[in-house]
Amino acid sequence: MLERMPPPSKRTNDPERTKRDILEVAMAEFASEGYSGARVDAIAARTRTSKRMIYYYFGGKEQLYLAVLEEAYRSIRALEDQLDIASCDAREGLRRLIEATFDHDERNPNFIRLVSIENIHHGKHLKQNLQLRQLNASVIETLDGILRRGRDEGAFRDDVDAIDLHLAISSYCFFRVANRHTFGALFDRDLSEPKVLARSRAQIVEMILAWLAATK
Amino acid sequence: MLERMPPPSKRTNDPERTKRDILEVAMAEFASEGYSGARVDAIAARTRTSKRMIYYYFGGKEQLYLAVLEEAYRSIRALEDQLDIASCDAREGLRRLIEATFDHDERNPNFIRLVSIENIHHGKHLKQNLQLRQLNASVIETLDGILRRGRDEGAFRDDVDAIDLHLAISSYCFFRVANRHTFGALFDRDLSEPKVLARSRAQIVEMILAWLAATK
DNA sequence: GGCATAATGTACGAACTGGTACGTTTGCGC
DNA sequence: GCGCAAACGTACCAGTTCGTACATTATGCC
Asked: Domain A15-73 sits in which CATH superfamily?
């Protein structure tokens, strides 16, 4: 088959692949440049298809961003499902959950950046999306279960609720990734360096456990 | 030309006021819209002067942003100077510093947002600015002093350094403000509400103190 | 094989946006 | 007053950017 290469160009239709391709490229672009900084043309250029398809499948820049945001949130669904929390005591279960959160944020800087970007825009896209809110409820339930068990075991204090706890854990894990650049520039400590990372990972666990163990 | 109304219009020259005016408006615009989302025309419109002056005094959009960023960082210089830390023990001194950090972030959402924005842009502007890095070193020195005193008093563990501690404190205070919108949308808790705020303020103090008191 | 529809490519346009050319006014030293 | 530089206003331009009209090809179905 000596197919004359580009004359008939051999186009193949693959809607699913095209959509996924656009989403992936768009995620990288939005995460890297912010919503306003992202360029539809730049996304199209890095896609195997054309700008036309972005509008064909997604409708526009804002809807594409919305799809990216949803995809990003969806990918972290039930982060805590894979953990075997039931089989250990509350402290150990919590330790695993904290480490999983830490590792997740570390491994998904694009997700972190998108959340930052969404907050810059006052969370107006997320607020529109009912579905996503429910996805995130599960981590609260998990934490609530751990907290209750910890109280029953006499290991945890009883005046900290699941949302307090989630705030404490995720703020640390999130900040480390989101503010890596300014923190690194100001304090000369590269938070992405393996040794620093491991140190932080241990410290957030210590911190939370010490807090919950405190007798007020 | 029947124009009689604003004949000479009584213009007054006041360079300093003009500059400050532009900076203030620009700070609000950048913080609200992000760097790419901010519009030079929008800034000019809300100023008592014209777009021409932005270029006259600052040179361009990017240099204006740079000036805004510098101004924002400079305004928090020596946050810890007003605290009387020397006159109390380490735990009390640290408590005051944490609360001051918390209150500062709470009162300066624009600063918080600008830092978020700067991180979206990989901190490239901050990295260029040597001056600003030194300004921020003071908080580390202060924390270092507290930590050392705490160890001498036998109240603090000795395997946590000042930068570890600063990371723990500022991540919590920062996240509460920076991610207020997505957090609120996902977990139905308005972090800016006075009661929630006071609760958080107490919790971050408890958390840090419990951590440092832990005997490893 | 023919046809309807989904999928895709190309080229272009209208509006926006950062930046500037050009002219005018103010304030200050004398 | 007078002159001159600093301070300021207006109108406009050129490049960019989102979005679309129009044409074309692939694919499933009978």
From this structure: Homeodomain-like (1.10.10.60)
